[in-house]
UniProtKB/TrEMBL annotation:
Keyword annotations: Chaperone, Coiled coil
Protein name per Swiss-Prot or TrEMBL: DNA repair protein
Top-level taxon in the UniProt lineage: Bacteria
Residue ranges that the Swiss-Prot or TrEMBL entry lists as coiled coil: 255-282
Location of region: Disordered: 159-187
Listed SUPFAM superfamilies: Chaperone J-domain
Length: 325
């Protein structure tokens, strides 16, 4: 009931100031915040410009409520409002950070899909060449400390090849799922994912709900990777309508807890700003954000990788190593 009291006090002061705009701005909120028939009559009187009758009713109603309403430290309301503003700021920063990361991920998947087969062949040939070098040393019985280096080089080449091949396949699978969706569904998936993630991001929620928020974010991210629009819609609906509020500003009413949360989010904002500045300087982001002709870029990379493949094939041939053997 504290909000209607405060709104009626604002309206009473606005009547004294003869300010219609302030009165009009409060009426929609007043209608939605209570079902008290007395307030309904006050609203009607205000809408019909019967200000004398309205102010008398306001004063009588306020007097009746003051004996019933517990006093609340105004610092709590101020702190909650400050926290809401900080949460919104942090939400915007997280959204911008996530949008950049998503853009990088999309480019990386495109890169892996377009150039992955060539890069996989480069790594395979390097693996073969490392094996050839080791076999040659073994055949010559030239076993010394360098042999350990050769074995390590062979093992690293194998690991790089297997890891990249797995990553390339995952990227291809993601691209395939994206291409199987209509353009409108792809945009809808991104939009709903961003909307849902703002409501349950672990950096934003009350500390008591972080575990639940982590779980929901994991579900959202997995659904996004699968291109599962139905699941994302369901999670968003749950967050919007069928789920308890998760943001700290909606849950906390203790001044000391609110103040600690304000300080915590201020630190998170500072950290995220630093992260964004670092990301803006990374080579991958500079490439993605400045690339004006992706097709020309990929053709250039394809040519370079093809030349590398030819060079490696020549080196293997010159080594006399039989890949089949």
């Amino acid at each position: 009931m504290s909000k209607p009291i405060k709104r009626l006090e604002i309206i009473k002061n606005a009547i004294e100031l003869e300010d219609d705009d302030i009165i009009a701005s409060q009426l929609p909120h007043l209608k939605n915040e209570t079902d008290d028939p007395v307030i309904d009559d006050i609203v009607l009187a205000l809408e019909e410009k019967r200000y004398g009758e309205a102010v008398a009713a306001i004063m009588a109603w306020l007097q009746s409520q003051r004996a019933m309403v517990h006093w609340q430290d105004p610092r709590i309301a101020a702190c909650k409002l400050e926290l809401k503003a900080l949460e919104e700021h942090l939400r915007d920063l997280i959204d911008k950070r996530n949008a950049r990361i998503a853009r990088l991920d999309e480019f990386n998947d495109l890169y892996m899909t377009r150039l992955g087969p060539l890069m996989t062949e480069v790594l395979r040939l390097r693996k073969v060449l490392a094996e050839a070098s080791l076999r040659k040393r073994e055949a010559e019985m030239n076993l010394d400390d360098d042999d350990i280096v050769a074995r390590r080089a062979r093992d690293e080449a194998r690991e790089q090849y297997e890891t990249y091949r797995e990553q390339q396949q995952k990227a291809q699978n993601r691209r395939d799922r994206q291409e199987n969706m209509s353009e409108s569904d792809r945009h809808e998936l991104k939009r709903l994912w961003r909307q849902a993630s703002k409501l349950c991001h672990p950096d934003l929620v009350d500390d008591a709900l972080k575990a639940e928020a982590n779980d929901m974010m994991a579900q959202l991210n997995q659904a996004r990777q699968r291109g599962d629009l139905t699941t994302i819609r369901s999670l968003l609906a749950r967050l919007q309508h069928g789920h308890q509020p998760m943001l700290a500003s909606d849950r906390l009413n203790d001044l000391s807890l609110l103040q600690r949360k304000v300080a915590s989010i201020q630190q998170q904002i500072a950290s995220l700003n630093t992260e964004m500045l670092t990301l803006a300087k990374e080579k991958s982001w500079l490439l993605v954000s400045t690339l004006t002709n992706p097709e020309a870029y990929f053709r250039q990379q394809e040519k370079a990788l093809s030349n590398t493949i030819a060079t490696l094939q020549k080196q293997i041939l010159e080594s006399g190593f039989d890949e089949v053997a």
